[in-house]
């Protein structure tokens, strides 16, 4: 009995030691995506930079989609400190940072790659006003990345809101992506990405929205007949860390993280441009019968007009996430964030 008890205690202490060592020497990085996707390229470059800067003393372990749960699960694990870093799209952050959905509003960021990158990496609105909201759930926003222009997948041509009628479109899990497709006339269906191929194959959903590189990697082009480019918005990925954990790091390790983030952002930016172009060519080669539609300026203008109502929806979503006493200030802050972002996009476009 004593021997068994001793073994249990020894095992518990050993496990605790391993846990402490892992926390000190191995940083966990959870991604919503899989190997070869843009967030993986970011994570790999980040990990390599940390390893190099620490002379191999600190390693970064990357966890891919499903290994630690859903997109929402890995955000929660990072907020609680079980995981140190998380990369996830803004469309999955709504329940934690409702203000982050400003980046899901159609036609806010525009379609210029350089403008989008400048805003996502240097915006005072993002890294002061919005970042403050991340801190409230114990997350520190480190950077944002574009993963490429979002395309609609469908089994019919979609050129107007009327074409969306009766169409079930897979969306992300936050409110604004869902409300966007309602405004466009579709029936939005939030799903985690691992469920999408089967849903498209079985026709339980009719279409989806994602960057081209991801559509190809997930093989969704195999079960869609049309790809439509509406110029709606890019897929915006976020990289955050546990705020308490980061603030407890020595200054040199905080600087190490910042340097590694810059390396990851550059690698992801270069890769997303390359992989989106390459994967579009692969889709055309594998599915020569698949129709590709680029909306005209007049067609885009109709969807942009439909999107205007979503600004008030965004304010409502943010306001409703707070207690009654905080609602007026929350709504005003949401408007400030949207106005600031629109102003920065306008200035960067000149």
UniProtKB/TrEMBL annotation:
InterPro entries: DctP_fam (IPR018389), TRAP_DctP_sf (IPR038404). One of its GO terms (biological process) is transmembrane transport. GO terms for cellular component: periplasmic space. Keywords: Periplasm, Receptor, Signal, Transport. Residues 1-24 form the signal peptide. It comes from the Bacteria. Its main location: periplasm. The keyword Signal applies. Belongs to the bacterial solute-binding protein 7 family. This is Tripartite ATP-independent transporter solute receptor, DctP family.
């Amino acid at each position: 009995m004593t021997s068994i008890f001793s073994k249990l205690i020894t095992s518990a202490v050993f496990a605790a030691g391993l846990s402490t060592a892992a926390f000190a020497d191995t940083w966990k990085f959870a991604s919503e995506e899989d190997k070869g996707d843009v967030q993986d390229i970011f994570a790999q470059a980040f990990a390599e930079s940390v390893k190099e800067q620490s002379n191999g003393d600190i390693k970064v372990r990357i966890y891919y989609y499903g290994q630690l749960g859903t997109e929402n699960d890995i955000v929660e694990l990072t907020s609680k400190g079980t995981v140190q870093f998380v990369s996830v799209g803004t469309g999955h952050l709504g329940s934690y940072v409702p203000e982050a959905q400003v980046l899901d509003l159609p036609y806010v960021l525009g379609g210029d790659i350089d403008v989008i990158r400048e805003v996502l990496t240097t915006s005072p609105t993002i890294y002061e006003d919005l970042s403050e909201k991340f801190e409230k759930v114990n997350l520190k926003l480190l950077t944002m990345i574009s993963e490429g222009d979002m395309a609609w997948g469908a089994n019919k041509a979609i050129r107007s809101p009327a074409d969306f009628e009766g169409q079930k479109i897979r969306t992300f899990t936050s409110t604004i992506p869902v409300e966007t497709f309602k405004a466009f006339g579709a029936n939005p269906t939030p799903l985690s990405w691992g469920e999408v191929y089967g849903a498209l194959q079985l026709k339980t959903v009719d279409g989806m929205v994602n960057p081209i590189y991801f559509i190809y990697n997930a093989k969704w082009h195999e079960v869609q007949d049309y790809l439509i480019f509406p110029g709606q918005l890019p897929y915006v990925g976020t990289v955050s860390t546990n705020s308490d954990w980061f603030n407890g790091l020595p200054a040199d390790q905080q600087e190490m993280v910042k340097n590694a983030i810059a390396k990851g952002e550059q690698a992801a930016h270069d890769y997303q441009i390359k992989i989106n172009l390459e994967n579009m060519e692969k889709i055309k080669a594998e599915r020569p019968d698949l129709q590709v539609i680029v909306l005209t300026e007049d067609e885009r203008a109709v969807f942009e007009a439909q999107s205007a109502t979503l600004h008030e929806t965004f304010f409502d979503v943010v306001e409703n996430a707070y207690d009654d006493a905080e609602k007026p200030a929350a709504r005003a802050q949401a408007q400030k964030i949207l106005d600031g972002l629109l102003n920065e996009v306008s200035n960067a476009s000149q």
